Amino acid sequence: MGLLAEQLGVRTPSLYKHVDGQEDLYRRIATLALNEAADAVGGAVQGYAGRDALAAAAHAFRAFVLAHPGRYAATIGIEPTGPHDPLATASRRLLDSFTAVLRGYEIAENAENAETTEIVEIAEPDVDHALRTLRSLCHGFATLQSANAFQWSADTDESFEWLITFADRGLRAT
Fold this sequence. Notes:
Structural class: mainly alpha
Radius of gyration: 18 Å
Number of strands: 0
Order of helices and strands: HHHHHHHH
Strand content: under 5%
Shape: globular
Number of helices: 8
Helix content: 55-70%
Distance between the termini: 48 Å
């Protein structure tokens, strides 16, 4: 907190007028990042279905992670304190955007009527598996790319298109 106060040009006690400590600060950063990612992905998928929606969501998510790797990193491993926690609401918004993508595939046929009470509780088990798969694919690629881990000759944009095609084929096959 002292380093943050120094970077902001304020005294450390002044920070505590706005946040309750380091954990609160991390939660607020994670909530901000999840809301920003949800805005990006949700806006990108509007008016699209199927592969087009998948591609729009994947590109928006990847762009967010590449533009804000630190913010995105803050979202990993932090758990909501309950269903009304702003972090839970932001997480649900991002999941809802990816669930909207799945509506273009048979896998999400029954998910529209499912009642959700917690951030990952979805009545249709295949939708849950599909969401985890999409998150793993997009998260893995974007975080590896943001860490400059793709240093061989193949173009990363072409590889990402390959990933989208791979995911689309997999979702169509389920």
